[in-house]
Amino acid sequence: MTKTLSRFLYGGDYNPDQWTEETWPEDIKVFKKADLNSATINIFSWAVLEPREGVYDFSKLDKIVQELSDANFDIVMGTATAAMPAWMFKKYPDIARVDYQGRRHVFGQRHNFCPNSKNYQRLDSELVKKLAQHYADNPHIVVWHVNNEYGGNCYCGNCQNAFRDWLRNKYKTLGALNKAWNMNVWSHTIYDWDEIVVPNELGDAWGPESSEAIVAGLSIDYLRFQSESLQNLFKMEKAVIKKYDPETPVTTNFHSLPNKMIDYQKWAKDQDIISYDSYPTYDAPAYKPAFLYDLMRSLKHQPFMLMESAPSQVNWQSYSPLKRPGQMAATELQAVAHGADTVQFFQLKQAVGGSEKFHSAIIAHSQRTDTRVFHELTDLGQKLKQAGSTILGSETKAKVAIIFDWSNFWSYEYVDGISQDLHYVDSILDYYRQFYERNIPTDVISVDDDFSQYDLVVAPVLYMVKTGLADKINAYVKNGGDFVTSYMSGMVNESDNVYLGGYPGPLKDVTGIWVEESDAVVPGHKTYVSLKDQNYEAGLVCDLIHPETAKVLAKYANEFYQGTAAITENQYGQGKAWYVGTKLDHAGLTQLFNHIVLAADIESLVAAGNQLEVTKRITKDGKELYFVLNMSNDERELPEKFAGYQDILTNQPAHKQMKAWDVQVLVK
Ligand code: GLA
Ligand code: ZN
User: Fold this and answer.
1) What DSSP state is assigned to residue 495?
2) Which UniProt keywords are listed (predicted)?
3) Closest by alpha carbon to 392, among 341, 459, 445?
4) Residue 667's closest CA among 390, 266, 317, 311?
């Protein structure tokens, strides 16, 4: 049985090997002062642990493990395999990744291993074996943290060979492969497996990596293969750990906005608990991190770990303003509001050298605790100490789901033509925002999730519809589920070949329409949609729609297709399906969703319009926890509904005036 977290972790990445041992006890004292109860260690220590091949030295690690254990810290133990020591590159050059430009990397950086290098795999699993054997029985280790932020594709000879095997296994015959990739175009027919080469910039790709492909079927398969190759590394490390320590949960930290190269939905089943590193940029609207947290929670439909976040500035974004007073706690608690069961930072102690020396920390360069940031960290520590055990393990229930799918992410952004502005995440966010602003709990699910638990499933830009998916959607709507899809949907199959007979291909039935052409909206030109007698701006593309069984909800207001359908609604069995033929502006989409939310009978947690973020988690004993967040620099008022509630962060009655970045977690 895999264990679960026994307390709400408050901590983060600590790199004691960057400091002398004498400083460690003082560091731990300071962490305790801020009510930290956890540290993540050994993330990048490979060069210290294995100074020469096969020679291991765990003495430093033993010492810090002992000191943290004596201080009653929970330890998140890294496997240290993300940054390779210099000797390894010298001895085994094939461990280094070959990039999209065809260049072999040399020693330096991190996260630059070739996932199909047998040498890397061997050295990696040997180190992990030694670590697992050594620490398996340590009760203070509560989570194993494999590698770090997997990502980055390799285009080397090892990968090419492994890719050919992967394809042979997938397609069985060259005939099937040529057909899937439609290789009669540009004389691409393959007559032998070893004629297949990796789709890098020198071959069948152009433009920046993963943004343009000549044979999209090939490039998408390569992304699938690379994601799987890295996943196999994770699985290899996990299997080694489990052999010695079957009960402690194993995770690797997911990251980015979200990471395009890794299909996290495919990876999720191998994670004992999902963990996520969150670094929203200063100009990211609050619904963006909220969306990412909902995506992380929905991967396993379980609480996740907020594995990393910044106490204030980061060093790597173009601009990194200070987090405003109160903003740090609000951004951490936002993750908790959406399902995080930990609050962890990068970094616990600010480095003096290296590229992250200007990344914020619990112990800053001043090494003082009488600072604004430290006071705020201490305040948050006290609140989590107060409320953490109530929050831990509580669940989120959503009646709305938005589909996010990595194969769609890849294929949609590989589209050559129509418009250069096809951005998958942006299109999904337009729709997510509709629910965020209405305080409607929303899951962000994969095409393989069970739809029947939702009243409304929203699938914007569902460009790729793999075999069986349309049947699943049809059955869901027939049985009373409501469904929304949009422009650029139902266009290709899983190999990126177009469905003939009119767009949206296999979604024509459920939507009750067919699309003849799609116009691109060019810069400087305005196209309008008339919805409920009001004009709204249409962007990106405008589908020229023929309604069949669907009724028209909105029409284009100008252009040669003025007066034709822009948005339709179709009754299909017991349910309804809406088709949105253009990228409607926010006001227009809001008007449309006023209608859809009502028709689908979806309830908000509190009436919209208060400009607060409100979520709900339900504790194991059925208590409802309302997270009310003011994610802004302005003052707001608590909705009437919460009068008489109690704030579990402070053990005080709910207060009405919510200052900038104020958060309350309310129970009746
Ligand atoms: C990533 C890494 C950390 C650190 C932080 C800095 O998330 O996992 O090691 O570099 O970024 O923001
Ligand atoms: Zn490789």
Assistant:
1) T
2) Glycosidase, Hydrolase, Metal-binding, Zinc
3) 341
4) 390
Closest residue by CA, ligand 1 atom 3:
346
Mean pLDDT of 269-281: 97
Share the mean pLDDT of the chain. 97
Q: Which residues pair with 144 in a beta bridge?
A: 77, 250
Q: Which residues surround ligand 2, an ion (CB under 5 A)?
A: 114, 116, 154, 156, 158-159
| Catalytic-residue membership of 308 | yes
54: helix, strand or coil: coil
Q: How confident is the model over 115-135, as a mean pLDDT?
A: 98
Condensed to tens digits (0 to 9), the pLDDT of residues 334-345 reads: 999 999 999 999
Give pLDDT tens digits for 477-508: 999 999 999 999 999 999 999 999 999 999 99
- Give SS3 for 517: strand
Q: Is the pLDDT of residue 607 over 90?
A: no
- Using pLDDT thresholds of 50, 70 and 90, give the confidence band for residue 413: very high
**pLDDT of 609 strictly over 80:** no
Indicate the fold that domain 9-151+226-391 takes in CATH: TIM Barrel (3.20.20)
CATH superfamily of 400-599: Class I glutamine amidotransferase (GATase) domain (3.40.50.880)
What integer pLDDT is reported at residue 625 of this predicted model?
98
Residues with CB under 6 A from ligand 1: 148-149, 255, 277, 279, 308, 314, 346, 356, 359
Whole-angstrom Cα distance, residue 120 to residue 94? 8
- For the chain, the maximum distance between any two Cα atoms, rounded to a whole number of angstroms, is 76
The answer to whether 169 and 224 are in contact (CB under 8 A) is no
Asked if the model's pLDDT at residue 258 lies above 90, the reply is no
Phi-psi region of 658 (alpha: psi -120 to 50; beta: other; left: phi over 0): beta
With contact defined as beta carbons under 8 Å apart, do 148 and 82 qualify? yes
Catalytic, out of 149, 209, 376, 613: 149
Segment (H or E) for 238: helix 216-244
Which ligand approaches the C-alpha of residue 256 most closely? 1
Determine contact, residues 582/487, Cβ cutoff 8 Å: yes
> Which fold is adopted by the domain 613-667?
Immunoglobulin-like (2.60.40)
Nearest-angstrom CA–CA distance, 214 and 186: 10
This prediction has a pTM of 0.98
Residue that is written with structure tokens 């359908």 in the block: 565
CB 19 within 8 Å of CB 399: no
Determine the Cα–Cα distance for residues 619 and 396; give it in Å rounded to an integer.
Answer: 9
Mean pLDDT of 309-320: 96
Binding residues for substrate: 110, 148, 316
Which ligand does the CA of 225 lie closest to?
2
187/185 Cα distance (integer angstroms): 6
Residues of the chain with CATH 3.40.50.880: 400-599
Express each pLDDT in 25-34 by its tens digit: 999 999 999 9
Q: Clarify whether 149 is annotated catalytic.
A: yes
- Within the chain, all domains assigned CATH 2.60.40.1180 are found at 613-667
Q: Whose CA is nearest to atom 7 of ligand 1?
A: 277
Which part of the chain has CATH 3.20.20.80? Answer: 9-151+226-391
Residue 322 is predicted with a pLDDT of 96
Beta bridge partners of 665: 627
